[in-house]
Write the structure tokens for this entry.
Amino acid sequence: MKRILLILFVFMSVLCAKAQEFPSLSYYEYLEYVKENHPLVYQANNRAASGIANATMARGDFDPKLSFENNQKTFDGKEYFNQSNGSVSIPTWYGISLKGSYSQNEGVFLNPEEVLPANGLYSAGIEIDASEGLWINKRMATLKQAKFIINQTNSERLLLLNELVFEASKAYFNWLLAYGNLQVNERYLKNSEQRFEGVRMRALQGDIATIDTVESYTNVQQRMLELSQSKLDLIKARLEASNFLWEKDNIPLEISKLAVPLPINKNEIDQLLGIAEGVLDKFFLTRHPKLNVLQAKISVLEIDRSLKQAALFPDLTVNFNLLQTNTNNFIPLNTDQYKAGVRVSLPLFLRKERGALRLSNLKISDAKWDLSYENIIIQNKVEQNLQAQDFLLDQFVITGKMIQNYDRLLKGEQQKFSEGESSLFIVISREQKLIEALIMKNNIENKYLNTKISLFNSMALSIN
């Protein structure tokens, strides 16, 4: 599919040479694009819809059923039989089914037990699964499981959306980091070029040795290589961030080459992600979607275990039907005309049933261990990210002070070099330390932002 350029919020005029402002894309605006049309959003919504569809399908087991059957045979000019039967069956909750039917049989070769009155025969009765059906049966179990599956699929939807925001945010933070490093390298490439011109002029005037121009230009070349690498890193980060931007109709978008990410305010991101201090105090593990998914699986397995337990009882089915030639004769009830039956079966050793129950218990045990294990993992991840933020904030402050000190040292060394009291090597070394500190600060900020989105992810929160 042909990719198109996304010109974000500002239409740039190529013909306007004086235009210096680049289109910008804030973190908030970026996430709005991600949440709007990303394919995973539709998949997450489909996941929730599948739970509702499954429940609808389970309720279908309780739908009334109409049926009609006709069998006839004519041979050698004789009507052997013409049998018709129409019925309605209404399943109910506790293994009970209400049934009504009308049968009419004609023919000269009917079996004696199938001979009916000329007006046909009406039947109304009840069928009871008197073994497992009174406790639980397949259709009851399916409907109960469907209700838990709705909760499970809703929680899975939240997890998918949370994971999408998590991955998209990391891509944006990396883009922001790459852009910050690019600015550092651009600034100090320009510094190295200006320094080279100054060194060259002083060498021509005989103030310093000509070899210093070689060292100064080598430093320019180093800065050029670093800038080239930072440009490559920026392209890669920008395209990775573009992976999460989509237009309607499944059209992928690409962030403009001239677009720039905006700095992120720490308080604003806390409010946006729902990880502000007041919100954290109200965090409860019982509401965590991952744990809700595991708990729903346990509930579904427990219902399945109930079915396995019910299978240990004898299979006993009882039915009773009143028979009348006219529907008006059902009231008052006349129990002298009826059709009844009973069916009993039971495997002698129950090995299949006992084995199935044992497997069901093992599955529940595994699921409960998973729930306990995941509970601890979530708590530790939350605590880990909270503590990491505190340490990274301290590192950020320390690095800021280091940058100030390295800047002072660099300026002092430059002053000494201009007075002939220092060497170019020391000046470049001081500058390199300053650049490393600036890059370090960018990396620490990136780690800090990643701990925030990791906290959001570990708590499985959602953005409204």
